[in-house]
Amino acid sequence: MSQFEITINGTTLNLTTEDMAAIETAMADAMRTPHQKTFRKGTTGNVYAKLLNGPGSNGQHFSHGLPAGYIETDC
Questions:
Q1: pLDDT tens for residues 3-13?
Q2: Whole-model pTM?
Q3: 12 lies in which domain range?
């Protein structure tokens, strides 16, 4: 089991590979249920995630689509 030391905004966390997987899963679940806290059990503790700027919020939304009227061609 690999361990990582991760620092975010001055806070250092010691996490395992399994913790990273739990974080990823909790975040994916949070994407499906905006504004609701999701839970996963990690090896070093509980992992909670909540999407704050999902549908129906005042957060910014980005689109990867092309603008209307834009046509791509290959020459």
A1: 999 998 999 98
A2: 0.62
A3: 4-51
